[in-house]
Amino acid sequence: MSETLIPAADRPEKPQDGGPARRPPRSASLWSDAWYDLRRRPLFIGSAALITVLIAMAAFPRLFSSVNPFDAATCRLEDTRLGMGAAHWFGTDNLGCDVYARTIHGARNSIVVGVSTTAVTALVGGMLGLIAGFTGGALDTLVSRLAEIFFAIPSILGALLILAVFRTGNVWTVMLAMAVLTWPMTYRIMRAAVITARSQDYVLAARALGASAWRIMSRHILPNAIAPVIVVATINLGYFIAAEAGLSFLGVGLRSPDISWGLMISDARERFLEAPWALLFPAAFLSVTVLAFIMLGDAVRDALDPKLR
Amino acid sequence: MGRYIIRRLLQAIPVLLGATLLIYAVVFALPGDPIAALAGEKRIDPNIVAILREQYHLNDPFLVQYWYYITGLVGGDFGTTFSGVGVDEIIAGKFQVTINLAVTALVLEAVIGVGLGLFAALRRGRASDSLILASTLVLISVPTLVTGFVLQLLLGVKLKQAGVDLFPVAGISAGWRSYLLPGFVLAGMSIAYLTRLTRNSLVEIMRADYIRTAVAKGLPRSRVIGRHALRNALIPLITYLGADLGTLMGGAVITETIFNLPGIGGQLFSSVYLREQPVVVGIVTVLVLIYILANLVVDLLYAVLDPRIRYE
């Protein structure tokens, strides 16, 4: 099951030695070495198992709950703020809706926002970092200044502003608002790694052999500079999920009838003392999800960069 | 040194201009008419509208409006809101609250983070070290949204019911005590990072030759750790703390909402909906300035902590 999470880290290794390494590799690449290391790490196994469950929850919420929270008929006002019990495992909220079903269905938005924001920032920041770091000169100066400007703007407040312009909060506007302000993080890391790789002997050799700039970038520099970006992207995924909940909590992220853990927390806060379960269950799911991705990031970092251990 | 500071400040100008322009443009793009928002449901005299639009340069193109704003800002004028109140008056009080909160968080972070990190490093590999490392992972992962409400319930409400009224649940009426709980909540993630950073940097330093020398020449353990190890470990910690001040202030909005603190977060929120451009841009400008200055101070502190570093 846990294999589903690995392709990103596993892929670059395959063209070199044909098949996945089963034995402790003698002259292994960074990737097969990292993969070998990861499979033995309890932190990785634990987080991968958690993430698998969460992804299943996001993809097939019906497997976990027979109640459809988008159907208004399932909320009964006479059942307002019922405690935990057999009919409602996690109790009911202020409108008499089943907290368990809503919590399960909330996983999808969180994960979609987290994954899409991570993908966009990694792609945009990574591409810009690769090009700016490789070409240097005026382009590098320009993009780096631009990154500095975006980096100086506080990201939650900035995202709040951008979302106020959109007026509608949905998964994609939230993703965009966060990505616009956070791409400089990946950019900086990619650029630094590319600049280190640029002056290595193998790059000079490729250049001397007449390889094109595109070929040097894609075949020589990228595979050697991408590890830190993957590490930061995995850790950031957790933060993006937390940030989405925060923005939805503030009322500028996802809005009802969309289901978001942040929104559920915000709705439940007024009657927190009477019905703490309506707040604590989505809060617990949110925390466990963020924890799972950060644990994964920690494990990947330990495997890819043993110096940081 | 003086030239270095001047160069750094000059470098900050494009960042500041770019950031304010960006924010100005975003607020410019906000839907709705600020003058109409001023009048609420009532019909407003078109002559008054015309005068107000003229007064606030609303008929000018975007860049001209920005130019008016930025020239005023250089002269120390943050502008006025559409209801005629000076922006500096509005944001000064709000910033006071947010600064109090951020500084409380920073102090808690430094004391708890360095303390735990030191403790873990000195007991490396033992159970207490593993326990601290595991709890930092949890502290990093639990969003402020969650810690805020849980601690509010446990320490603010349950503890009060048990007779210990230490932490006010909301508002700032109890003086510095009001900031303790929100400050801890805001600092949560940073505490965990600082603990890890302190531990890792100390563990590395304890293996250094000069530590072995210090031990070998018979220095007491407290002096080895205090003067030799900790001082050298301070550089990454100071960097982190300095950069964190800006992050804490910018990220305080959720904590402020949970604990009902009248800081810049709430002000920004209401100003966004009233389309008060000068207030929104003013708040972000000050935050960007704090971020830039904090980073400069950190860079200058390097030279104090490590005499090998010199600035030209």
3D structure, described in words:
The complex is a heterodimer of chains A (309) and B (312). Chain A has 13 helices and no strands. Chain A is mainly alpha-helical and 309 residues long. Chain A is elongated, with a radius of gyration of 22 Å. In chain B, helix 5 runs parallel beside helix 13, helix 8 crosses helix 10 and helix 10 (221-250) runs antiparallel to helix 13. The relative contact order of chain B is 0.14. The termini of chain B are close together. Chain A binds chain B through residues 145-146, 148-150, 152-158, 160-162, 164-165, 167, 238, 242, 245-246, 249-250, 262, 265, 269, 272-273, 276, 279-280, 283-284, 286-287, 290-291, 294-295, 298, and chain B through 14-16, 18-19, 22-23, 26-27, 29-31, 137-138, 140-146, 149-150, 153, 157, 246-247, 249-251, 253-254, 257-258, 265, 268-269, 272-273, 280, 283-284, 287-288, 291-292.
